[in-house]
């Protein structure tokens, strides 16, 4: 073992002397394997190994720097002082300082926090500041106090908020709560999104208040967050709270509200989704979201509302989407109703049946639902004048009757 290590040390020195960084990296990778790190020869030469690794970091290309960064992380705390020196040196190229910041973040050592914070506050490079902030975020709980301090300054508040949002530890809740009414829209939006991931008693009312924020991105994050709390549906009357956002002036918000209500489930949510679906002058994007949501809400009434919409709305795009989502219903207690609606369209000669794309979609959906009562109408479709309808009817029949 000793001879092998000494041989690798000699090879590393030869590679260093020849500026053969790839060979040097290979030697260092073997010397710094976990089972070697406590070996007396390695401990005796640790500082020298660090010097060699730092030389590659300073002189290597992008890939070589990427590989040597892993070795420097493995060397542990002895790498921190020289990396901090690189980080602080304004004459050093930006890419090298960025690597130093990343490695310091991987090491998760509190001693790296002050220089990373200083870089965040004083450097003009947005890219370097973002890397420093990410490094702080990687440190988790040890960096929360430092990131909280950065919230006090407007120029670093957004980055600090973003980094706190990455940590996702309960210790970040209090600092995030302190900025939910910040003057910067992006800060509020990031804070609301991060808080949404915590099941903490302080969060739901903050999200409800944010539903009425003047900025659409903040309202959207609040809607999305509440959508993942269906267990609070009754206690906080979330269906009523979300209803107003169905008619938000911003389509991203209203579409998010549709999805959130589908997650709530229940009759009240289904009713609100139907109302927005059939309301006058509703954008088609919102109608399509409402159709999908009614199929997701998981109630018989949701499908009955879709059935009503087929005859109440006169838009082929809407008909086709309803037909498509009915074929995707997987709840066994609802598949019979889905098939019934589709078969009724065929029996009553719904206007959509005259449109080849929609008739084809009916065939596909009946095949997906797997109901034997669809065999006869699908067989009739085999004689349809449209080749696409015949093809899809044949494919559906093969699903229902494998011997077809």
General description of the model:
It is a single chain. The radius of gyration is 31 Å and the shape is elongated. Helix 8 packs parallel to helix 10 and helix 17 packs antiparallel against helix 18. The protein has 404 residues and is mainly α. It contains 25 helices and no strands. It has 3 domains: 1-107; 193-300, Leucine-rich Repeat Variant; 314-404, Leucine-rich Repeat Variant (Alpha Horseshoe), CATH 1.25.10.10. The longest helix has 16 residues, at 2-17. Keywords: Antenna complex, Lyase, Phycobilisome.
Structure summary:
By secondary structure, the chain is mostly helical. It has 3 domains: 1-107; 193-300, Leucine-rich Repeat Variant (Alpha Horseshoe); 314-404, Leucine-rich Repeat Variant.
Mean of pLDDT: 91
Specify the helix fraction band: over 70%
Beta-strand content bin: under 5%
Q: What's the number of structural domains?
A: 3
Task: Specify the CATH homologous superfamily of the largest domain.
Answer: Leucine-rich Repeat Variant
What composes the largest sheet? none
What is the class of the largest domain in the CATH system? Mainly Alpha
Secondary structure: number of strands: 0
Rg, alpha carbons: 31 Å
- The SS-based structural class is mainly alpha
Put simply, the count of helices is: 25
Keywords: Antenna complex, Lyase, Phycobilisome
Family: Belongs to the CpcE/RpcE/PecE family.
Protein name: PBS lyase
InterPro entries: ARM-like, ARM-type_fold, Armadillo, PBS_lyase_HEAT
């Amino acid at each position: 073992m000793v001879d092998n290590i000494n041989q690798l040390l000699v090879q590393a020195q030869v590679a260093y002397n020849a500026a053969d960084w790839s060979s040097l990296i290979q030697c260092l990778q073997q010397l710094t394997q976990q089972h070697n790190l406590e070996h007396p020869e390695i401990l005796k030469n640790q500082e020298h190994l660090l010097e060699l690794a730092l030389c590659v970091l300073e002189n290597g290309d992008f890939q070589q720097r990427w590989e040597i960064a892993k070795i420097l992380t493995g060397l542990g705390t002895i790498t921190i002082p020289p990396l901090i020196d690189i980080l602080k040196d304004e004459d050093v190229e930006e890419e090298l300082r960025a690597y130093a910041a990343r490695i310091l973040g991987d090491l998760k050592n509190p001693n790296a926090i002050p220089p990373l914070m200083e870089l965040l506050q004083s450097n003009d490079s947005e890219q370097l500041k973002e890397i420093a902030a990410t490094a702080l975020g990687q440190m988790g709980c040890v960096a929360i106090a430092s990131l909280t301090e950065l919230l006090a300054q407007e120029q670093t508040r957004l980055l600090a908020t973003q980094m706190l949002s990455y940590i996702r530890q309960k210790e970040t809740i209090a600092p995030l709560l302190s900025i939910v009414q910040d003057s910067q829209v992006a800060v509020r939006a990031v804070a609301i999104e991060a808080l949404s991931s915590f099941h903490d008693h302080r969060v739901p009312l903050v999200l409800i208040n944010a539903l009425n924020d003047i900025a659409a991105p903040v309202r959207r994050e609040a809607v999305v967050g509440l959508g993942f709390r269906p267990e609070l549906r009754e206690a906080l009357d979330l269906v009523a709270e979300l209803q107003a956002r169905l008619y938000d002036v911003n389509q991203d918000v209203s579409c998010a509200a549709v999805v959130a209500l589908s997650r709530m489930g229940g009759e009240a949510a289904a009713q609100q989704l139907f109302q927005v679906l059939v309301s006058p002058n509703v954008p088609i994007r919102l109608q399509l979201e409402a159709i999908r949501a009614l199929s997701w809400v998981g109630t018989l009434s949701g499908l009955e509302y879709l059935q009503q919409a087929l005859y109440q709305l006169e838009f082929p795009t809407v008909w086709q989407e309803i037909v498509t989502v009915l074929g995707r219903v997987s709840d066994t207690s609802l598949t019979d109703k889905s098939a019934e609606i589709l078969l009724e369209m065929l029996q009553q000669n719904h206007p959509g049946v005259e449109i080849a794309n929609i008739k084809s979609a009916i065939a596909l959906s009946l095949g997906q639902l797997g109901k034997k009562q669809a065999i006869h109408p699908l067989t009739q479709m085999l004689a349809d004048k449209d080749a696409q309808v015949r093809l899809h009817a044949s494919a559906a029949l093969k699903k229902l009757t494998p011997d077809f």
